[in-house]
Each structure stands twice: as structure tokens, then as C-alpha cells.
Inverse folding.
């Protein structure tokens, strides 16, 4: 049996290698800066393989990678405040998953590219919510993040921008973010499984791509402190922008 025999149907050795390369780059970004993996991975990976397959692949990889961080996050988080935002995700994730499951792949790719471009602009703006707490606002932000996660696993920027702008200790903000995405990933796993998006193909591919992603995360973490975070974040922003451009369906005839 060769390595190619282990690959899912319709995934060639070339596609698997390309997905591993994208996973390494996106994992490196996450390992150093703590963000950007999905924003880099999804536009590029969905131009290589079916958006439904790569969204499920990224979900499985992230779910496994984040699980060990949840017990500590549970102890340090403001669980009451996080629960309100999680309520929004409970609504938003199934809606995003539904659209992922019914839309044509090219349509999904256009939506992913537009979403990621908008989220990149949000990151570049440095937006932080510094207003008062409102339950309806928390539910709305959780719903938006959940929708983006259900559709393309790109729900990070709204939640990060919200929690980092609150007058709370950074350690609590980080714990809240981790706890929220633990719940959001769980909702996504259930929604993806119910709609058939978690398939044998996505699980097999995650076993191949997952270790490469983990190596990228470890490599990125090892770079922390060797270069200024400002410089590396700038590189991450540039990679996200390139991912949006190169992942555009309009360039299929030129780049692919």
C-alpha cells in the first residue's frame, strides 16, 4: 500500500501536499501570533479542494489542538459572561453550517473570500469594543462569530475584538476566548456531523494534514521573541491578504 492509497477519494497526492503546505503556513501564523490560521487556510484550501471538505478538516484539526487548553480556560474564564455569547453561537453556527451544506462550492468560495477580506479589514482597523455590556450585543457578536465559524471556521476576529476591548484582565479575556471557541467548535462538530460534513474523507485527511499543522504551530511558537510581534503580525496580515487574492474563484483560469 502506498501513501496515495491512504488518501480520500478525489484527493490526489498533489492536492494533499498543497493542503499540507497551506496548513504549515497557517499553523505557523497561529503559533506565533495566536490568530490568522483560518483566515489564511480557508481561502487557499477551498481553492484546492471542496470548501465543505476543508472546513470540516480545519474544524477537526482545531478541535483536537484546542481541547487540552479548555480545563485551564474553564478555571480562569468569566463563565457567566461567556455563556451569554455562547448562546449567540448556538444560533449562528447551525445557520452558517446550513449555508455551507447547500451552497454551490464556487458561491461558498466567493462568500469565504469576501468574509475573510472583511475580517482582515476589521483586524487592520484595530477595532476594540469599549462600550457598555449589553446582553443583546453579546448574543449578536456570538451569533456573528458562530455564523462565520459554521460557514468557514473564520469566527475569530469579532470575538477577539470584543473581548480584548473589555475592561478585564488579559488572562481572563484569553480564557473567555478559548472557552467560547471550545463551545463553538463543539456546536460546529455537532452541526457538521448532522449535515454529513464530518465524513470519513475529512477524518482521514485530518490525520494526514493535522500533524503538519501541529508542526507549523510549534514552529511559529518557537519564533516568538525572535522577531517583534508587530513585524510578524504585519506578515500575517500580508499572508491573509494574499490568501484572499489567490483564493478568488475569478483567478481559477490564471492560477489553477
Amino acid at each position: 500500500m502506498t501513501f496515495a492509497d491512504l488518501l480520500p477519494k478525489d484527493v490526489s497526492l498533489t492536492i494533499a501536499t498543497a493542503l499540507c503546505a497551506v496548513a504549515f503556513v497557517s499553523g505557523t501564523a497561529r503559533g506565533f501570533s495566536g490568530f490568522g490560521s483560518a483566515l489564511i487556510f480557508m481561502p487557499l484550501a477551498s481553492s484546492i479542494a471542496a470548501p465543505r471538505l476543508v472546513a470540516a478538516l480545519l474544524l477537526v484539526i482545531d478541535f483536537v489542538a484546542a481541547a487540552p487548553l479548555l480545563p485551564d480556560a474553564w478555571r480562569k474564564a468569566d463563565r457567566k459572561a461567556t455563556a451569554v455569547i455562547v448562546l449567540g453561537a448556538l444560533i449562528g453556527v447551525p445557520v452558517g453550517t446550513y449555508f455551507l451544506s447547500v451552497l454551490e462550492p464556487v458561491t461558498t468560495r466567493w462568500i469565504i473570500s469576501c468574509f475573510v477580506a472583511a475580517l482582515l479589514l476589521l483586524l487592520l482597523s484595530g477595532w476594540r469594543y469599549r462600550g457598555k455590556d449589553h446582553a443583546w450585543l453579546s448574543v449578536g457578536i456570538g451569533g456573528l462569530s458562530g455564523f462565520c465559524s459554521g460557514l468557514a471556521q473564520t469566527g475569530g476576529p469579532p470575538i477577539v475584538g470584543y473581548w480584548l476591548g473589555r475592561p478585564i484582565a488579559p488572562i481572563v479575556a484569553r480564557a473567555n476566548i478559548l472557552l467560547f471557541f471550545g463551545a463553538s467548535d463543539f456546536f460546529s462538530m455537532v452541526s457538521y456531523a448532522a449535515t454529513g460534513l464530518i465524513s470519513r474523507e475529512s477524518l482521514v485527511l485530518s490525520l494526514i494534514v493535522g500533524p503538519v499543522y501541529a508542526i507549523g504551530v510549534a514552529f511559529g511558537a518557537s519564533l516568538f521573541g525572535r522577531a517583534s510581534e508587530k513585524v510578524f503580525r504585519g506578515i500575517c496580515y500580508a499572508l491573509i491578504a494574499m490568501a484572499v487574492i489567490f483564493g478568488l474563484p475569478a483567478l481559477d483560469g490564471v492560477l489553477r
